[in-house]
Amino acid sequence: MDLLDSHSVNNRVKKRTVATAVLVHLYLTVITLGFWLIPLSLFSLIAAALLRNDIDEAISSANSFNKALPFKYFGQVTTHIQHIFHHPIKIEDDLFATVEAELKTKTPIAALEPIVITDKDKELRSFEERTFLKGEATSTQRGTTITLIVNQSSFGAMRSFEWRVIVGGYVDNDAKFKLIAYSPFTLLFWIAPYLRHETNLLSRVRTVYSSAYNDIDISTLVRSISETVFDAMVVALEKNGIDTSDLKAQKLQSMNINISGGKVNMGNVVQGAMNKIGAAVKGAKA
């Protein structure tokens, strides 16, 4: 995954953006008799350094995080579905194999590869590692990436199978310029949550290109991946003697992913599905 690859989109700093920033800072420099250049220089250097650190860290350390945002490198989680069921033995290998086989047959996702993601929270006595399976779809023509993350866990004989579909954009040069140029106005609002690891600057400059055709492509890929995984889960559960009648009854509801944003209530069978594709696109504009 290349964070800088915008594919067919002309990724540039817009002339209007530069002109507006120059006029604003020139005006403030004049009315403050030049003193505005001090916070402008200081805050811009801080923002640029932190942003560069976030981008470099994401490229070189996609498999680690600190307390929050374990999947931040891949983008924003737009679909998160979790199913809880009871079975006396672990059937995760069968579940994973069935999902991978269905993805190979129905989508361009060729394989599910194991990925170890480490929580490097400095307050922990030792770092914690967890293993997930990752599948990557081909990017859209406008540089949007789609990543599938699958995992399973147990609580006694209760089993949890869940998957996330993550939508990621490219690093937008225009958004980078705005973040740095207007940092004297915004830095004090985001520096505290940034230092608490509650947010990161990469998400502020990473753009899911907003266009009707890109929305169609994203919706198609996300829906297709989710439905394929859902169907594969049902097949694997039935193979192991687990009743799936409620799952089948709620399939249409659980696949109702809304490209314009909002939430879908999955009922009692499929839990935790939150579809935020629209929010990802709108957030990219901000």
Structural write-up:
The chain has 286 residues and is of the alpha+beta class. It folds into two domains: 80 residues, no CATH class; 182 residues, no CATH class. Helices cover 45% and strands 20% of the residues. The chain has a seven-stranded mixed sheet with strand order 1-3-4-5-6-2-9, with helices on one face. The chain has a two-stranded antiparallel sheet with strand order 7-8. The protein is elongated. The C terminus is likely disordered.
Using only C-alpha atoms, the radius of gyration works out to: 22 Å
Task: Tell me the count of domains.
Answer: 2
Proportion of helical residues: 40-55%
Uncertain runs: 257-286
The number of helices is 10
- Residue fraction in strands: 15-25%
Mean pLDDT: 86
Spatial arrangement of strands, main beta sheet: 1-3-4-5-6-2-9
**Class by alpha and beta content:** alpha+beta
Beta-strand segment tally: 9
- Most strands sheet: 7 strands, mixed
* Straight-line distance between termini: 23 Å
Overall geometric form: elongated
Order of helices and strands: HHEEHEEEEEHHHEHHHEH
